[in-house]
Design brief:
2 copies of one chain form a homodimer. By secondary structure, chain A is an all-alpha fold. Helix content of chain A is about 70%, strand content about 0%. Chain A has 2 domains: about 1-55, Orthogonal Bundle (Arc Repressor Mutant, subunit A), CATH 1.10.10; about 60-195, Tetracycline Repressor, domain 2 (Orthogonal Bundle), CATH 1.10.357. The structure holds a DNA duplex.
Amino acid sequence: MLGTPSRNRQTERREATRREIVDAAWEVARDEGLAQVTLRAVAERVGMRAPSLYSHFASKHAIYDAMFADAWTECGRAGREAEAKHPPQSLRDAMHLYAATFFDFCVVDLARFQLMNQRTIPGFEPSPESYAPAVAVLDELRDRLATFGVTRLEDIDLYTAIVGGLIDAQLANDPGGDRWRRLLDHAIDMYVDSLNH
Amino acid sequence: MLGTPSRNRQTERREATRREIVDAAWEVARDEGLAQVTLRAVAERVGMRAPSLYSHFASKHAIYDAMFADAWTECGRAGREAEAKHPPQSLRDAMHLYAATFFDFCVVDLARFQLMNQRTIPGFEPSPESYAPAVAVLDELRDRLATFGVTRLEDIDLYTAIVGGLIDAQLANDPGGDRWRRLLDHAIDMYVDSLNH
DNA sequence: GTCTATATACCGATAGAC
DNA sequence: GTCTATCGGTATATAGAC
């Protein structure tokens, strides 16, 4: 039987090119807006012509799809990193940590936030494979909070809604500022206090 | 001096046509999405050809602009109506009333919510005249809450962020359902409790 | 004020040479 | 795998006849 190494130079090169394309798409999204991510604009940044992208992605939505998975994978990584650096010792600690990490992660990149959390691109829906990292992040959060005794769906729903609302208000009404960021700790304390009933 | 009546039949007819166009635009937005509001689609619904719309609006953004003012004017009306029907007797009453009214107003029309609260249309920014009704709604809210002793900017910011976060979560994750709507009263109670310190 | 016709500028995607 | 050339469609907006 011929060798079929899971990693050879060809597939590695192919993977690297896909990475380049997705990174270029992120650049366009950040610089010009998420809706301005066009095949022509992406291709130009990687030094290609637009049709060449079809050798690596089946469609434009496939690029958005890879970006979506990218963003949530990165979000999970950021969460685990923060966790390792400041292991939360209490429920309150944990609630503050995850909220602050997610807030700061979202707020530095409006386009990424829109892709992750809003349905701003007409017709785009993430594939199950790309949706998986998003589910994984929420599952991880649920598991972490469960170790501190918070398991009710409603409690977690309210938590995510509060954090999301503050992020949304920050990005919509004071982008680049901290008018709502300053309210985050107080909001989390208020929320944690309300759990102890 | 010749009579220059502020209302004659010509200007009234003109205003009526503008209304028809904006209403048609709302229909398109609701049926096909906010981004799918094209001049062709709008014109078709009013029985015109696309270029004819330019007799009434200077550009497509001008239509969005009228819609934006429309939405916030309607929102203010809904608030005053709810208020008249159930005059709040306490701060807690008021907080519940405005939150529920705004939530239900937003959640019945995703396209309207996106236009009012998100920056989903590339390049569109409301004109000062159209932004005015939005400011008025927030001013009214601030005045009402002030009569109950709530005047700090941070308190109002947190209030709007919480309500907005719940609306956002509802529309994004359970459109048509009530998974986050059910959390609203509890969230408001939690928030009001936190004010009494 | 509405129409037809058109200008201008894009877009995503495909065919086929190399 | 990348290219050129192009298809077929979208869009906003303008010119000028009626």
